[in-house]
Amino acid sequence: MARLLLVTFFLATSAAIVSAECPGGYIQRESGNCYRAWQEQKHSCYYARNRCEEEGGWLVTIRNYDDQVWVNNFYRQHKGGPCGDKYWIGANDVSEEGHFRWQQDDSDVEFTRWTGGQPDNYYNEDCVVVNSNNMSWYDKWRKDVFFCFVCEMFPRSC
């Protein structure tokens, strides 16, 4: 009986995993989350954060070098005409100056790719932008500086 329950649980879990999918406009990373490069026009960090949340996600989280390379390649492949080389990510120090956290889960940013002299908090900068040419990070003002961005979300079950 216990074996039958275990097999049933395994099959149900496998079916749930197989049936997980990304909503329209999002692309699933192999065995991972769903991503979308917002490419219609550049926006402020504030807008980008809210837009990703409205979609059920967050500005992209980059936990390690492999994530950085994958997200950067994704952005470069999917960015639209008005988008430049830079894009917003979910790292920010909105809550506490100098303490960068991820929008996704409010966890500490441990992996970084700050360029020289960054973060510098010039004009009270709270958001992080990546230069896709060299994957370097900069802190930027969130209200009147405009870039395209990448949203991330968990796959949804059918």
TrEMBL record:
The keyword Signal applies. The keyword Kinase does not apply. Residues 30-139 form the C-type lectin domain. Keywords: Lectin, Signal. CDD domains: CLECT. Residues 1-20 form the signal peptide. GO terms for molecular function: carbohydrate binding. It holds the Pfam family Lectin_C. It comes from the Eukaryota. SUPFAM superfamilies: C-type lectin-like. PANTHER family: C-TYPE LECTIN DOMAIN FAMILY 4 MEMBER M-LIKE, TETRANECTIN-RELATED. This is C-type lectin domain-containing protein. The lineage of its organism: Eukaryota, Metazoa, Echinodermata, Eleutherozoa, Asterozoa.
